[in-house]
Specification:
The protein is an alpha+beta fold. It folds into two domains: 41 residues, Arc Repressor Mutant, subunit A (Orthogonal Bundle), CATH 1.10.10.10; 75 residues, Lrp/AsnC effector binding domain/regulation of amino acid metabolism (RAM) domain (Alpha-Beta Plaits), CATH 3.30.70.920. It is 36% helix and 19% strand. It has a four-stranded antiparallel sheet. The relative contact order is 0.16.
Length: 158
């Protein structure tokens, strides 16, 4: 986490809100929506990227339409918490394409993984052949997601 929150004026906040909703907005459209000239809008957007406030632009894919019909939330507890084992576990997770997100958490478990696979057979294979043998894994608890109630990438910028 960064040490301080950057100062943002109202135009910066508007730009961030607009590009979160539509990363493909043209510079001309952005300029029109924030009531600036295209060069001024471009300069502001560039400055926000250079400051690291915009990490990138991506396309959000529909997992189900692509055949990934099963999502699971998997809690992982490490058997050992030595620095080297933790780093090995984290590196192994980075290499697993099924893992969309991984959080280091407090409480009963050490990590929470968001995983997508095509079906229950792929989930079983992932759990038995990929995750369980990963370095440091001690215990796994899996929840199947029935439905996704809310999913957004949009931050409220204040």
């Amino acid at each position: 986490m960064k040490d301080s929150v950057p100062a943002l004026d109202e135009l910066d906040k508007k730009i961030l809100a607009i590009v979160q909703r539509d990363g493909r907005v043209t510079n001309a459209e952005l300029a029109q929506r924030i009531h600036l000239s295209p060069p001024a809008a471009h300069a502001r957007l560039k400055r926000l990227r250079e400051r690291g406030l915009i990490r990138g632009f991506v396309a959000l894919l529909d997992a189900e339409r692509l055949g990934y019909e099963l999502m699971a939330l998997i809690h992982v507890t490490l058997a050992q918490h030595q620095r080297e084992r933790v780093q090995e576990f984290r590196a192994a997770i980075q290499a697993m394409p099924q893992v969309l997100e991984c959080f280091h958490i407090t409480g009963e478990y050490d990590y929470l993984l968001k995983v997508v696979v095509r079906n229950r057979h792929e989930l079983e294979h992932f759990l038995v052949e990929t995750l369980t043998p990963a370095p440091g894994v001690g215990r796994i608890h899996t929840n199947i997601v029935f439905s996704e109630i809310k999913m957004t990438t949009e931050l409220l910028v204040k």
